[in-house]
Structures are given as C-alpha cells and as structure tokens.
Design a protein that fits this description.
5 helices, alpha/beta, 5-stranded parallel sheet, Rossmann fold
C-alpha cells in the first residue's frame, strides 16, 4: 500500500473574483501527487472550515487577491481554534504586502506565499511541513 496522499483544500474567500493563481497552484500540487479540493470562488470562512473538516485535509490554503487577507485569515484561524482544528497547515497566498506577513504568522498562519512565489517552493514547503507533523 502506498503512502497516504497529502490532502489540500484551496479556497477563495470573500468577494475576490480572481482565481488564475489558485488554479496554477492547484495544478502544481496535483502534479506533485497531492489530492486537491478546490472550493471555487466567493466562499465564506464557515464554508472553508466545513470543507476542511468534511474532507479531512492536511492543508488549508487561502488564495486572496482582494486585500482582505488580514480579517479573513484572522477569522479562519479563530474558527479553526474554536473547533480544535489547529493541527492543520494553513497557508495564505496572493496579493499579500510584505508588511502583513508577520501579522498573518502571528494569527497562526504557517506560511505566506505572495504573488510571484515559486511553485516548487510551495510544493516543497507543504511536503516538508506535513511530513514533520
């Protein structure tokens, strides 16, 4: 029996309608042998958390281009804490200003991949981090 596939949910929270970057990341993760669940556009944090629970994912990835990354990420981390799901790897990617990365990590986000991050960097970070859990 083979090694368990890493399960990842990629979500587009809020009013953000730009998902090209998310789709590129999804293809890279699938090519790396991961199982990826894409929630589609305009998801609420509640829907994202429910999907993470239902699908028993290892990784929750938010793709945010709308500028609402701080409140959305904070709300996600609070909801994960409320239901005791703090052992999941949470990643945020998209149009994230450098000055906000520290704040996101203070919320509990494991890593931030701003626009222009290399796909192999994302894949390797996930593989290494999930293996270490």
């Amino acid at each position: 029996m083979g090694e368990k596939k890493i399960r990842v949910v990629i979500a587009k929270p809020g009013l953000d309608g730009h998902d090209t970057g998310a789709k590129v990341v999804i293809h890279a993760l699938k090519d790396a042998g991961m199982e990826v669940i894409y929630t589609g556009l305009h998801r609420t944090i509640e829907e994202i958390v429910n999907t993470a629970v239902e699908e028993d994912v290892d990784v929750i990835g938010l793709s945010i281009y709308s500028g609402a990354h701080l409140p959305l990420s904070k709300k996600l981390m609070e909801q994960l804490e409320e239901i005791g799901l703090t052992d999941r790897l949470v990643l945020v990617g998209g149009n994230i200003p450098q000055k906000d990365i520290k704040t996101l990590k203070e919320f509990g986000v494991c890593e931030v991949f701003p626009t222009g991050a290399k796909l192999d960097e994302i894949v390797n970070f996930i593989k290494k981090s999930v293996k270490e859990k």
